[in-house]
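Checked the freezer inventory, then went back to the computational side. Two predictions to log before the end of the day. The first one is the construct we discussed on Monday; recording sequence and tokens without edits.
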Amino acid sequence: MSFNVLIVDDSGAMRAVVKKIITLSGFKMDECYEAANGREALDLLKESWVDIILSDLNMPEMSGLELLEKLKSDELLKEIPVIVITTEGSDVRRKIVSDLGAKGFIKKPFIPEEVRKILYDVLGMTDEGEYGGDQTETDGVDF
């Protein structure tokens, strides 16, 4: 199974690093979209569906906090899990982004294994990349 990912960061170099780290982690991506700020991310989300968003906090035009607020207020977009990637790792900052709906938090610098673990945790997957939880038998059901 592969996922559509949106990386939001004002630094093109950091977007490239995050994309490379995700690839190195073994996480399966179908499409990887990029946006330089929250406003570009919202515009992209009007045209394309993503399964997960990885966003920086400090960006011009629309910050990651403002993006979280906009996503939280939209009935459809609020269902997309967001992982915040930032240099700011204080407990206060973590609480703020969690209260705004972020499902994960990665402090820069990071390593591929950490990124994969958080992506899997947020998406409800096992360490092997399979969906966890109740795997009820569906005898006789073919769809």
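The second is the one RB wanted added to the comparison set:
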Amino acid sequence: MLIGRVDGPLTLRLIMQPLVAMFFAFRAGMRDAEQGRSPYFWRVWGHAGSRRELIVEGWKHVRNVFIAAVAFDVGYQYIEYRWVYPGQAVIVAVVLAIVPYIIMRGLSNRLVSLRRREVPR
């Protein structure tokens, strides 16, 4: 059923939701780089003492996109199957919102950090 979501109603969400998540992640990654912080995922992974605060910060940035992804998938499931599978909605929302956010936040941090090192002052 998860693979079948590629076509059918509400297909545009498969493009728009990751793009919105990446937009917020890009802004956050740029801010991280400007403040001289390491990429987000590595800070979450490597700093057990501040992990909770970092996860709360990341959640603030991506929660609305995640909630929208769940809502759209619930709508899709109801239209397509006349039934709602909450577990599948959460899986789809993680794939469409959380994963692109984590990847783009780290990439934007690295790109901005590299660019700042290359520009002579």
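For RB: The CA atoms of residues 26 and 105 lie 5 Å apart. The radius of gyration is 17 Å. Let me know if you want it refolded.
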